[in-house]
Every structure is written in structure tokens, then in C-alpha cells.
Write a structure and sequence with these properties.
globular; 180 residues; 5 helices
Amino acid sequence: MMYLIHGLLSLEFIDKNVKILVIGPRTENDLLILNGYGFSNVVGLDLITYSPNIILGDMHNMPFKANEFDVVICGWTISYSKEPNVACDEIYRILTDNGVAIFGFDHYNPKNTNISGEAPVQPNRINSISDIKRLFENKISSVYFEYDAELKNTSINEIKKISGLDASVVTIIFKIKKQS
């Protein structure tokens, strides 16, 4: 998540009063980190929670009004969706015009089947920048950052040696535009 948060911090037009939704934070850690960087209007959404700062809910049917959030951070959750098109439509719905969407997830390489904790792979699993761009087709006005799993054809052991991670990572940060 720090990759995604640091990406957000690099956007000079983002003011500390923006309304941020973090999808799938599990614990308050990501929310508290954002608070520590001065963002005061941060909420989480997850299927499981103990915290009043994390609303119980599903990214496929979010309990928020249209145009409610300036930033949505979806870290390491979209790739587990059985209906990523529905989840991305919901993200688009709740983002304001010129809102920022931030995604991060592990690239799944079927050759690397021994990833610990890897959930069963969905047939329509989001696995690349092009998958995200396809789901937001004609709705993206600016892409600020994209990194498309440069080490995706590398073994888990090599990835771990190089980066300390269990998989090659995909990240993208972009601004959306609402259709008039």
C-alpha cells in the first residue's frame, strides 16, 4: 500500500481535504498512514472490520452516493473480484469528475503457482495495466503513473531476491473524466 500512498502524495494538485476511500484495508493501518500524511477525510470499505473507520460493504455494491469521493485507492483487492467490471463501474460511479483512481495488485504468473496465500485464480482476473484501462475505457483523462509487472516472467525466488516481494507488482494512478 505504501507504493500507492506515495503515488498519491506525489500528485501536487491533491489537497489534504479531499475525500478518500480505501477499498479493502482490513485494518486501520492504511487509514492511519493517510491521516499521518495530513489527509483528514479518509474512510475504508471492507467485507470484514472491527473499526468504525471501515464501513462494512462490498466493492461491487458500495453504500455511497455518486460522486462522493475525490480519490479511491484499491490496493490488492480488484484481482480477487469475480466481477471486476462491476467493481470498476462502482469505483467510477462514486468518484467525482476529475477524481483519482489508484490500483495496485500482484501479477499472477501461472508458472509461479506456489505463491503463499494466493487465492484461487478467477477466470477473468485483473492481471495487467491493459485490463484496468479496458475496464475504464474512454473514462480516463490522464494517467500519472503505471508500472506493469516488469518481473512478471521471473521466478518467485528471483523476485524475492530482487525486491523482497512475493510477486511482480502492477500499479496505476489515473484521473477519470465523467461523461456529460
